[in-house]
Design a protein that fits this description.
This protein is α+β, with helices and mostly antiparallel strands and about 190 residues long. Helix content is about 30%, strand content about 20%. The strands form four sheets. A three-stranded antiparallel beta sheet has the order 1-2-3. The chain is elongated and about 100 Å long.
């Protein structure tokens, strides 16, 4: 059992008064327990700068990596947009990347089927390419009624996501334009 003088010496209020920290904002507020705590990001092997994948704001994130896996994700204080702050969705990005419900396979449900089936990525990409080519051919307009050249398709359009960066949106725009699509939009503009 601790004696009274020892209890008074360890009492935080006494330490605050003795060390001139009456408001308890300095080192006197630290207990042995809090002094031994370490940040969960301290053991990270490297920090990777990134951008939040959710909305079009573009908040900066710092991704802490340990043993080749994401250990934590925090706001980037160097970001001029978010200045180190993240909304609740951005703060939960780790769950998006490493959550137990995340799908790692392409899922496909055939027309009128009752369930989903797994497809290889190669097979899914072939199916998408086949459908783009078919839709382009189906909606192709070579000339208008007066014989003026159109060289366009109304068989499909494109809607870019606001979380894509400028380079990705540029490449998507170039691809869809080269395919003859004229209905190309971006979520950030809508």
């Amino acid at each position: 059992m601790m004696n009274v003088p020892e209890m008074v010496r360890r009492w935080p209020v006494w330490r605050q008064l003795r060390e001139g920290d009456a408001r308890g904002l300095g080192l006197t507020a630290r207990s042995a327990h809090s002094g031994a705590l370490r940040a969960r990001t301290e053991a990270a092997e490297r920090v990777v700068p990134s951008v939040c994948p959710y909305c079009a704001v573009g908040c900066g994130q710092r991704i802490f990596v340990k043993d080749g896996r994401i250990a934590a994700i925090e706001g980037d204080p160097a970001s001029p947009i978010s200045r180190g702050r993240l909304c609740p969705k951005g703060a939960a990005t780790h769950g998006l990347v490493a959550g137990p419900a995340r799908e790692y396979k392409v899922k496909y449900r055939r027309p009128h089927a009752r369930g989903w089936e797994d497809l290889s990525l190669d097979r899914a990409m072939e199916m998408i390419a086949d459908r783009v080519i078919a839709a382009r051919a189906w909606g192709w307009q070579d000339r208008d009624d007066d014989g003026h050249p159109l060289r366009r398709t109304l068989g499909f359009g494109g809607l870019g996501g606001a979380t894509l960066d400028n380079e990705e949106n540029y490449l998507i725009k170039k691809l869809f334009t080269a395919l003859g699509a004229i209905q190309i939009e971006n979520q950030a503009r809508i």
